[in-house]
Every structure is written in C-alpha cells, then in structure tokens.
Amino acid sequence: MLVKWTRCTVVDRRGFERGQRKWAGLLGEPGFRGQGGGWSRGRPHVVHLFGFWESRAFYDSFMARSHDRLAAAQAGTFKNAQVRLFEHRFDVKVGFQPQFADADVVRIAHCRVREDRVEHFTLMQEKVWNPAMAGSPGMLRGVFGEAPGQEFLVLSVWNSEAEHGKYRAERVERLALRAQIEADVAAIGGDIVALEPSWTV
Question: At 200, phi and psi to the nearest 5?
Fold first, then answer.
C-alpha cells in the first residue's frame, strides 16, 4: 500500500473547504483505498491530508489522468504544499484500514533516521512503540511507512484527543528512552490533526 501525505497552508478557508469536497471523485479511481484529513491542532491555517492507494502504479496512473481535474477546484486556496509518498511497511495495531469515521484525531510522527540505525529504528517501532500504542485505550489503528532516504512516517488514528494526550503524558518519555530514539533519529517532526468528517472519502 502507498501512503500519500500532503501538508499545506490554507489562504482561502472557504474556497479550500469547498474544493476539498470535490475529492469525492476519487471513489471511482482504480486502486484508491481511502482519504482523510483535517486541520493542525497547533498551527492555524495548516492542513494535513492522507491518501491511500493499492500501489505506486495505481497512484501514478491517477496522477497522469485525473488528478489535475480534481485539484483545479482548490487552485489559489493554499500555498507551500508539500507532498510525500511512503510505502507501507507494517500496521500499528493490526488490520489497518484507511477509515476515519470513528476517529477524532490523527497523530503524525515524521522521522529522518541515521543510515546506520535504520534497522534498529524499525525494530524498536515493531517491538516497543507498536505494542505500547496498540495497548492504549483510544488508539484505533495506524500505519508505519518508509520513503527513500531513511525517511519514515508513523500515522496513528485516535478516537479522541484526550486519549492521545494521556498516552503522551504517561508513556512517551519512558518509551523514547527504551527505544534509544535519540541515537536513531536525526530529525523528527509531527503534528496532531483534528479530522474534518466531510473530507473523508
């Protein structure tokens, strides 16, 4: 599965939201699995969108054929768009499905990992972070993806911001020490995204 993460800064909120509804046209696309997104909790005007495709080939075919027609409705409503593609490595919890109807927030962690630490970082994700997140009340599902250049995305879907906040307060620091995150990671960024139900496709 291919995971597409788009981040941009909205300059015309009403126009952007109107255009976002046009992406319902994705539903007929071969290989399309689902899309969702919303507004950054910490940065006003910043939007995050997540799209899921069966494979890179299906995604490339869509980009060549239909993308520009669907995107035209949002022209001029945003700036600083950054798009990144990640190959699914494994699920966080089990049986990931790109669904957002039962969720309130998505947590993104975006990591650049030191070249000689990729194997350790991936192992720690599987053995330390995954079980801790999967065992947290309110954590619904998630996905761990990789892009060229030792770049990784951890996307976790939560039923409420309060539940994610509890997990962060109670466990993250201890887990980071156990996983030796500082030795593995060259740079880390992230955000909490308040999902917009009308953007889910």
Answer: -75, 130
